[in-house]
């Protein structure tokens, strides 16, 4: 009798592997932790261009599978129309819930209407979906605080509180179709604007409004091109001390442009912040090229979204901790906010390596 159990376990694992193999592209079947089919969860995600979204998708897949769900994970290549088509298809395939990392937070109204009509709950993942009442919950990091932390890191690195002479800075923001980008920028400006107003910080280009400094699609190449233009124009005659960069991809684009214009050799590189703790940027923080990044533990965000979904599907009420901040134009969306963490060379080891996000050997 004793011998029977291991054999049964082998059969269970083998049949779940078989289910996985049959699940088709983009789908994964029941994980070994579950013995019932709890249905499929649709996971439309924006892009694989930033490493974080790949991790977000994988983390959710793993966690859903452990609870007995299948997942349909699809990336839209930063194309809003493509994402709409993917969501339509998921609705037609009767997913039980949708967790959406949107490309364009304002372009999903029709899809959410269809989801509502089909009785499919919707969670906005990391990025708020605007202009629709048919969104149930939002799981994200404190986006305003991200901007505050980014700007504070620049203020500290510049010693701005005690600096005698004014410092120079150029500003970059994220993609205008991403609701988070405004929060990051507003958070950063809540710290920087008083210094700009008092003259302690000078923006040589004079470009300080969101629309002018935004970077469509969060594209690092677009940011590099704008930095090139600034360095050949208003910044040609000055030495830049800092650049506000809303994420790591943009930070690396900006740094590349600065290096191509002589910074980092004879001239000291400006302090540049970032976001997402992408490995390529963490390496630069470790070698002192990029000053800081913001760590958002995507494992934790996935956990929140998975728990929310599981509770909704089991008739329970998900945990939330913010009922005021995220007005999407139609309703204030009940939200669970996680805390972002600033990473500089000083705490990189403790936060990212000791915390298990990366291994020492990853840093090269
Ligand atoms: C934002 C997100 C950031 C960053 C950025 C670029 O919405 O909150 O963490 O990933 O998109 O993809």
TrEMBL record:
Signal recorded as keyword: yes
Q: Which SUPFAM superfamilies match?
A: Periplasmic binding protein-like I
Give the top-rank taxon of the lineage listed in the UniProt record for this protein: Bacteria
List the GO terms this entry assigns under cellular component, sorted alphabetically: outer membrane-bounded periplasmic space
Entry-linked CDD domains: PBP1_ChvE
Coarsely, its chief localization is other
Q: Name one GO molecular function term.
A: carbohydrate binding
Report the locations given in the UniProt record.
Cell envelope
PROSITE patterns, per the entry: PROKAR_LIPOPROTEIN
InterPro entries from the xrefs? Bact_Solute-Bind_Prot2, ChvE-like, Peripla_BP_I, SBP_2_dom
**Where does the UniProt annotation place the signal sequence?**
1-23
List, for all copies, the residue spans of the domain called Periplasmic binding protein: 41-316
UniProt entry keywords in alphabetical sequence = Signal
**Does the keyword Signal feature in the UniProt annotation?**
yes
Q: Name one Pfam family in it.
A: Peripla_BP_4
PANTHER family, per this entry? D-XYLOSE-BINDING PERIPLASMIC PROTEIN (PTHR30036:SF1)
**What NCBIfam families does UniProt report for this protein, alphabetically?**
ChvE (NF040907)
Query: What's the protein called, per UniProt?
Result: Monosaccharide ABC transporter substrate-binding protein (CUT2 family)
Organism from which the protein derives: Motilibacter rhizosphaerae
């Amino acid at each position: 009798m004793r011998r029977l159990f291991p054999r049964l376990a082998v059969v269970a694992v083998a049949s779940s592997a078989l289910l996985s193999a049959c699940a088709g592209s983009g789908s994964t079947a029941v994980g070994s932790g579950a013995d019932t089919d709890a249905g499929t969860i649709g996971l439309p995600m924006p892009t694989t261009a930033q490493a974080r979204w790949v991790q977000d998708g994988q983390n959710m897949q793993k966690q859903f599978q452990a609870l007995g769900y299948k997942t349909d994970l699809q990336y839209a290549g930063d194309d809003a129309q493509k994402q709409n088509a993917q969501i339509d298809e998921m609705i037609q395939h009767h997913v039980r819930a949708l967790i959406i990392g949107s490309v364009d937070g304002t372009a999903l109204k029709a899809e959410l209407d269809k989801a509502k009509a089909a009785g499919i709950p919707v969670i906005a993942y990391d990025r708020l979906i605007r202009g629709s009442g048919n969104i149930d919950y939002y799981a994200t990091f404190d986006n305003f605080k991200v901007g505050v932390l980014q700007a504070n890191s620049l203020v500290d690195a510049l010693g701005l509180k005690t600096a005698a002479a004014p410092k120079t800075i150029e500003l970059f923001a994220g993609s205008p179709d991403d609701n988070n980008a405004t929060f990051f920028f507003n958070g950063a400006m809540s710290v920087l604007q008083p210094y700009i107003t008092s003259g302690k910080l000078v923006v040589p280009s004079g470009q300080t409004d969101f629309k002018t400094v935004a970077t469509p699609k969060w594209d690092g190449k677009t940011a590099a091109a704008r930095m090139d233009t600034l360095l050949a124009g208003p910044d040609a005659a000055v030495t830049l001390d800092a650049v506000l960069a809303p994420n790591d991809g943009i930070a690396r684009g900006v740094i590349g442009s600065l290096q191509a214009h002589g910074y980092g050799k004879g001239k000291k590189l400006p302090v540049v912040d970032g976001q997402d703790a992408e490995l390529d940027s963490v390496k630069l923080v470790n070698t002192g090229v990029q000053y800081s990044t913001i760590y958002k533990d995507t494992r934790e965000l996935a956990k929140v979204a998975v728990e929310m979904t599981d509770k909704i599907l089991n008739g329970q009420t998900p945990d939330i901790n913010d009922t005021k901040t995220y007005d999407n134009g139609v309703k204030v969306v009940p939200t669970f906010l996680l805390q972002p963490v600033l990473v500089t060379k000083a705490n990189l080891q403790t936060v990212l390596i000791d915390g298990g996000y990366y291994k020492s050997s990853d840093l090269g």
